[in-house]
Write a structure and sequence with these properties.
heterotrimer; A alpha/beta; B alpha/beta; C mainly alpha; A: alpha/beta; 10 helices; 11 strands; 37% helix; C: mainly alpha; 72% helix; globular
């Protein structure tokens, strides 16, 4: 079976202020099907840039190269503008960390969802009346646990809480029924109790629709609980690829270090183990 | 060392007034670490800000090391009060002046309070927080998040306070850096006999650092318990249990 | 992140200046603007050496001569060399611009920062005063002021100052409002810093970059207003070679002896364009809101 997304030898680099080169993603390869793939790493590990490379939305100063980058058989590097328009939103969706930045601040939430639905229909060659789209939007908000969709749809993005905004973002991402969804740190700004609920919803939606999900987070235990498979990134490189259920047996010292350095409820109170970074990890050696 | 009794805090006035802290009471013994846990908007940071006098309207009593905060904020006790209690802010990216050298951030409190040997003391503080004296001549944007938080800690320690209030000291940092900062805070506490009042949304951090904690929700302290009670799972309130469940860190085996 | 170890404040400031210079060099229009600005200053300093004639002595034999080998940019109705007069005029331009900037920017900055920092009734009073000045048309206010004090360069500059400071106050107040609640301000307050110390050492530096950008853009406007006042006879008085006044005197010959008005006009145009380029470049580099910096 053809993998949903296949990347081989992806490199992303920037030119630094003093003219040097900063390699933000190094020789990254990944193959995924319709599964929940977690990408974990600390800030600056290149996880978000990887996602942006898949969507072709890197900042234009970035230099990207890859031996191969295909989505459902489509060569992403060769895709033209029209193909990209179809891909983004219709087939690959993205949810960002802060809904307040990702939503248009001067447009009502309902209008934004409706616009997205109608755009999707138009891309598929159908015309959809505003009324029908409005009804669909309401259903979608209901399915992300928003109990009074009619009211929420009349609100502006700044009038909803972080958790609500994030659910709206999930709804918008799902109305187009993409095959692959990329979620970038979508729960890190949320309180833990709301975080759990948002993840449950995301899980439900993804498994019901048999989609692929790339879940990017800095929170290793969270990713392990939520995803099927985890890629651990360090300084632009994938240092470990492991089934989420095997995470406790992680081989790479970086993964082990990340797990150990977290405090636990009821854990010992002495100094926490500190992660000793090793230059060998940059070379890709375990 | 810290005694907060029946504290009420309001923000805004008129129709938009919000009663953000309601009847909060807590005490922290000398040399102890006390945790305040809760979700965003629960009022936990506001308690810290009212202790140091960054909140305009509050009622109740606050005492730190025997000084009534009302005298400490505006009265004759001001100089003593600020040498008694200092604060470390949440976001090390926002708590350092973007255009000033970090060494100045640390030495300025000493200048203001007329301390002597400032250069030597600054160097010593930099060494104590795990940086070198040469770091003094950096701008904040030339340092990593962890390094900036170390600077913020050094700044809080510049006046040699007995009490340090920590507002989400590690929430903006990666977990590996969090471990380093928590270790640093624990070491400084042991060496200097500091009393900590730590605010965090992360129960695990509080459990690691503190001997007792209070759980806040919607401006009220809903539960106060010891670290051991937390570890035993002796939380009595559903809200606390939900928090504990949600902050589960164990990786499935 | 620079890994070189600095040993002093001086080095830190030098490094910051170097990185600013690097960013500036990557902005070609900014370099053009900077060059124009530098040339203007050099010309003002070296005017006696660059000049080919006397800027004031009339030479009726040569009146209204077209540009040529003797008079590179032609002569005016009194036979004075326009090229020489433009050179000397740059001194007047710089004098007016500097006088206006060094009075209006500090006044506006102080008003705005005090207003934003203290808030409450202080803010209300200072901002209403600012509003009053903003509500009166700029040129009208300047005209009225000059009419009262009498024409002249200094009075013209003061009149322009009167109209130029309110935007700085607005700008500084807005910047102050965004940072007065910042944690780094709270931290120095906890250390016991006085209001004046917080304002002068912590809030002023935040306002510097946006003020500098605004100043640069304003320079172009000031040159134009100064020329305008000179043109209607309320600024520099004859025989001073002020560019606006030179245009005014050339007005009568605009069709036959176009160079009399066109040459100083071109000087005004080039210089104000240069300051606009410079302002654009500074804004791109310094202003975090536009986001194209880093």
């Amino acid at each position: 079976m053809m993998p949903l997304l296949q990347i081989e030898g992806l490199n992303v680099a920037f030119t630094t202020e003093d003219g040097g080169e900063a390699r933000a993603v190094r020789d990254l390869s990944l193959t995924m099907g319709r599964e929940k793939l977690g990408i974990v790493g600390e800030s600056g590990s290149g996880k978000s840039l990887t996602a942006r490379a898949v969507l072709g939305i890197l900042p234009h100063l970035a230099r990207v190269s890859a031996d191969r980058m295909t989505f459902d058989g489509i060569d992403l590097q060769a895709a033209n503008r029209r193909q990209w328009r179809r891909l983004r939103g219709d087939r690959i969706g993205m949810i960002l960390q802060d809904p307040r930045h990702a939503l248009n601040p001067v447009q009502r939430i309902g209008d934004q969802i409706v616009e997205s639905i109608r755009l999707g229909a138009a891309n598929a060659g159908k015309r959809l009346s505003r009324r029908v789209a409005w009804a669909q939007a309401q259903d979608m908000l209901l399915s992300v646990d928003i109990r009074d969709p009619a009211r929420v749809m009349r609100l502006y993005p700044h009038e909803v809480s972080g958790g609500m905004g994030q659910r709206v973002m999930i709804a918008i991402a799902f109305v187009r029924q993409p095959d692959l969804l990329i979620a970038d740190e979508i729960t890190s700004a949320l309180d833990v109790t709301i975080q759990t609920r948002v993840l449950e919803l995301l899980d439900q939606m993804v498994s019901q629709r048999d989609m692929g999900l790339i879940f990017i987070s800095h929170d290793l235990p969270l990713v392990a609980r939520f995803c099927d498979r985890v890629l651990v990134m360090y300084a632009g490189r994938v240092v470990e690829e492991i089934a989420a259920s095997d995470l406790a047996d992680a081989k790479h010292p970086y993964t082990q270090g990340l797990l150990r350095c977290m405090p636990r409820i009821g854990g010992p109170q002495g100094p926490l183990p500190v992660l000793e970074r090793d230059d060998d990890w940059l070379a890709g050696a375990p | 060392m810290i005694a907060v009794d029946n504290l009420d805090v309001w923000y805004g006035k008129g129709a938009t007034q919000a009663h953000v802290v309601q009847g909060a009471t807590l005490t922290v013994a000398k040399g102890e670490s006390f945790g305040l846990v809760g979700e965003s908007g629960s009022g936990k940071s506001t308690i810290l800000r009212s202790i140091v006098g960054l909140v305009p309207r509050w009622s109740g009593t606050i005492g730190v090391a025997g000084i009534d905060a009302r005298d400490g904020h505006s009265g004759a006790q001001r100089p003593t009060f600020r040498r008694t209690v200092q604060m470390v802010f949440q976001d090390p990216y926002a708590s350092l002046h973007p255009k000033r050298l970090v060494g100045d951030a640390v030495s300025e409190p000493m200048q203001i309070n007329g301390m002597t040997d400032i250069a030597a003391r600054t160097d010593a503080l930099f060494a104590d927080i795990g940086l070198t004296p040469a770091h003094r001549f950096r701008y904040p944007h030339e340092l990593s998040g962890g390094q900036r938080q170390r600077i913020a800690i050094a700044r809080a320690l510049a006046l040699e306070p007995q009490v340090v209030l920590l507002d989400e000291p590690t929430s903006a940092l990666d977990v590996s850096i969090q471990a380093e900062i928590l270790n640093l805070l624990a070491r400084l506490q042991a060496e200097r006999g500091l009393t900590y009042l730590i605010v965090s949304h992360d129960l695990a951090v509080i459990s690691h650092m503190c001997s007792a904690l209070a759980v806040m929700a919607r401006g009220r302290i809903v539960e106060t318990m010891s670290r051991d009670a937390l570890a035993r799972g002796a939380a009595t309130i559903d809200y606390t249990r939900a928090l504990i469940a949600a902050s589960g860190r164990e990786v499935a085996r | 992140m620079t890994e070189t170890l600095r040993q002093s404040d001086m080095q830190a400031r030098l490094d910051a200046a170097r990185s600013f210079a690097r960013a500036f060099r990557r902005n070609p229009l900014g370099m053009v603007g900077l060059t124009i600005g530098c040339v203007l200053i050099l010309v003002a300093i070296l005017a006696p050496f660059l000049a080919t004639h006397d800027p004031y002595a009339p030479d009726f034999a040569a009146r209204l001569t077209a540009p040529g080998a003797d008079y590179w940019l032609g002569t005016d109705e009194l036979g004075r060399d326009i090229y020489t007069r433009i050179l000397y005029g740059s001194r007047i331009t710089i004098f007016i611009v500097a006088l206006v900037i060094f009075t209006s920017a500090p006044i506006g900055l102080l008003m705005g920062v005090v207003s934003g920092y203290f808030g409450g009734w202080i803010d209300a009073i200072l901002m209403r005063i600012t509003d009053v000045f903003l509500a009166v048309p700029k040129l009208l206010l300047a005209l009225a002021f000059v009419a009262v004090l009498g024409p002249g360069i200094v009075n013209a500059a003061l009149a322009i100052t009167l109209t130029a400071w309110p935007p700085y106050a607005r700008l500084a107040r807005a910047e102050t409002l965004t940072v007065r609640g910042a944690d780094y301000v709270a931290a120095v307050r906890l250390a016991g810093a006085s209001h004046w110390r917080i304002i002068s050492r912590h809030i002023f530096p935040i306002c510097y970059s946006s003020t500098l950008v605004r100043v640069t853009f304003d320079m172009a406007g000031i040159i134009l207003i100064a020329a305008g006042l000179g043109f209607i006879g309320l600024g520099a008085q004859p025989p001073l070679p002020e560019w606006g006044a030179m245009i005014a005197s050339g007005r009568r010959f605009i069709f036959e002896q176009w160079w009399v008005a066109a040459m100083p006009g071109a000087a005004i145009f080039i210089v104000s364009l240069g300051f606009n380029f410079l302002g654009d470049a500074l804004r791109d580099i310094l202003d975090p809101h536009t986001g194209s910096g880093r």
